[in-house]
Amino acid sequence: MQYRRLGQTSLKVSALSLGTWLNLSTKISGNDAHDYINHALEAGVNLIDTAESYEGGDVERLIGDVLSTGPFPRDAYCICTKIYFGATTRENRAMLRPTQKGLSRKHILEGCDASLHRLQTDYIDILLCHRYDPDTSLEELAWTMHSLVFQGKILYWGTSEWPPEEIERLIEIAGKNHLIGPSIEQPQLNVVHRDTYKRLVGWGGAVSALGLMTWSPLASGILSGRYGERPDAEGRLNDRSTSWVQALAFGKNRSRILALSKVLTRIAGELQISPAQLAVAWCLKQPMVSTVIIGGSTREQLVENLGATEKVDLLTTDIMQAVESAVSSRIVENAVGGC
């Protein structure tokens, strides 16, 4: 496993981190979850990503159960969780009261304590604000996160899927008030969806110093090559409980994205690697990326994705240009992403 500094922090994280969205608790649970998480840690992964909203908090509970009974000491790994949507399932978000979601001081403080309880830990290594909240004062947010650092409840903090202009404002407020500011952003990044990432990289200033934890390198599995001509044949895009992911993954570009996936599968075949490894390795080569969040619905998929770190050198300038040519020739529009 390779390790990289997380932006300008002193924290070194594995180039690949373990994602838990749409797999833990739903597809992987019990002893399988223990095997899944511990295998990632044994492979050198030292960062696990989750959120208060994943399965209404059940994913945090599962992670807490696994890590508290596992062989790895607390100082051997990092936990990143996110706050904003509330500790409920996507289907029940509309039932939450205003104080049970968002980025008010009340929800952040209470939500952080609830996550600590579910994760069975004394501190959270990285706490991210899961979305920009137009109803929250950035001054209030900066002071609240600063106070959590000084209480020892979190070590680092940042944002997820925020517009760069709002991140810049947040950094300026923290600097003006001598506060510990945000140092991490978590945008979606894959060959298909990269508009947010491109805006961050091109923004400059303090925003360019952020450490990026990128998610969905396989575009919800599309770039794994498993769907082919029938995207509904298997995987999460065929799962009724997550059928809404299709809209996020494809947007209005289903045929073009499938055509692109077919070309990428051919390129991967020429390199004698899997399409998934090509997709992950492509993300690892992008500027500002500190870690790429991977996962899988099975241990076998996880093992395959972990192997991407050994394939990065195969992506020569010519290969990267071939990928770009495949994307530009299909004029894929950015689809709406979210977790």
From TrEMBL:
Protein family per UniProt: Belongs to the shaker potassium channel beta subunit family.
Record InterPro entries: K_chnl_volt-dep_bsu_KCNAB-rel, NAD(P)_OxRdtase_dom_sf, NADP_OxRdtase_dom
Keywords from the named record: NADP, Oxidoreductase
Lineage of source species: Bacteria, Pseudomonadati, Pseudomonadota, Alphaproteobacteria, Hyphomicrobiales
Protein name stated in the entry: Aldo/keto reductase
Gene Ontology MF terms in the entry: oxidoreductase activity
Domain of life of the organism encoding this protein: Bacteria
Pfam family, one: Aldo_ket_red
